[in-house]
Design goal:
single chain, 260 residues, alpha/beta, Rossmann fold, DNA polymerase, domain 1, 2 domains, 11 helices, globular
C-alpha cells in the first residue's frame, strides 16, 4: 500500500479526533510517566495525550513517514518513531508504559488474538491499554467498497477485497481476551452520525482511510472509474435529509483494560 496522505486524513480531523477525546476521557489514570500512542498518524491524538499528561514522556509510533513528518511539525517537542505496530515492543532499557493508546489504528494490524494480549502484557503495573477501532465493515461505505471491488474491471487488480482489512473479534471477543488478565475491563460501542455535504464528501472521507487499500491497487485509469462507480452507489445508499445533507453513520468500538 502507498504511504498515507496526512492532508487528506486531516480534512475531517475534528470528526476523527472526537472518538480519541472520548476514549482518553475514560482512561482511569490521574498521572502517567510514560505514554505510547500507537498509530499516531499526524499527531492529533498525540496532542491530546500531551495535554492530558503534561509531565509524561509521550512517544508516537507510526509506520508512515509522511504522517510522522506532519506529527513532528505539529508537536516538535514530542518524540516520534517509525515502527510497525505488529512488531513494536517497548525498548528493554525503557520504563514500561503506563498507557498504551491506540486510536483508529489496530484495525489495520492482523492477529488480534495475539496482538492485544501482547500489548497488555507490555504495560507497567496499574497501566492501561486504551483502544478505539472503527466497526463499520457492514456499513454501506464499506460494503460498497467490496461490492465494487468484486466486479470487472477492478476485481483482478484489487484481488480478495475481504482480506484488505483485519476481521475484528467483536466487542465480546475483546472482553474475553482481556478479562482473565486485567484488573478491570471497560468496553462500549458508539455510533456517530456525521452530517456530510454530499456523496462526494463521504468518498473523500473514506478515501483517506478505509478506501485507500482498494484504490492503491488500481492503475490511474481504473482508479477514476472505480471511484465514480463507488460514489454513485454511495449517493443511492445515503439519502439527503431535510437540510440537504447526508448522515454518515460511523460505528466505533472502545476497549479499556487496566493491569493490577
Amino acid at each position: 500500500m502507498l504511504d498515507w496522505n496526512p492532508a487528506l486524513y486531516r480534512r475531517y480531523e475534528d470528526e476523527r479526533t472526537r472518538p480519541a477525546q472520548e476514549l482518553l476521557a475514560r482512561v482511569p489514570l490521574t498521572a502517567a510517566t510514560r505514554v505510547v500512542d500507537l498509530g499516531c498518524g499526524p499527531g492529533n491524538s498525540t496532542e491530546l495525550l500531551v495535554q492530558r499528561f503534561p509531565g509524561a514522556d509521550v512517544l508516537g509510533i507510526d509506520n508512515s513517514e509522511a504522517m510522522l513528518v506532519s506529527a513532528r511539525e505539529r508537536l516538535p517537542a514530542a518524540r516520534f518513531e517509525l515502527s510497525d505496530i505488529a512488531t513494536w515492543a517497548p525498548a528493554s532499557k525503557e520504563q514500561a508504559p503506563d498507557l498504551i493508546y491506540a486510536n483508529a489504528a489496530l484495525q489495520w494490524v492482523p492477529d488480534h488474538a495475539t496482538l492485544i494480549p501482547r500489548l497488555f502484557a507490555a504495560l507497567a503495573p496499574g497501566g492501561v491499554l486504551a483502544i478505539q477501532m472503527p466497526d463499520n465493515r457492514q456499513e454501506p461505505t464499506h460494503r460498497l467498497m467490496r461490492e465494487v471491488a468484486a466486479e470487472a474491471p477492478w476485481a483482478e487488480p484489487i484481488g480478495n477485497a475481504d482480506a484488505l482489512r483485519t476481521e475484528l473479534l467483536g466487542i465480546g471477543g475483546y472482553y474475553d481476551l482481556l478479562a482473565p488478565v486485567a484488573a478491570k475491563v471497560d468496553v462500549w460501542h458508539t455510533i456517530y452520525q456525521h452530517p456530510m455535504a454530499s456523496a462526494k464528501a463521504i468518498v473523500e472521507w473514506v478515501r483517506g482511510t478505509g478506501l485507500k487499500p482498494f484504490v492503491d491497487r488500481l492503475p490511474p485509469k481504473l482508479q477514476a472509474s472505480y471511484l465514480a462507480d463507488y460514489e454513485a452507489r454511495i449517493a443511492r445508499a445515503y439519502p439527503a435529509r431535510t437540510d440537504g445533507k447526508l448522515l454518515l453513520a460511523f460505528p466505533r468500538m472502545f476497549i479499556l483494560a487496566q493491569k493490577a
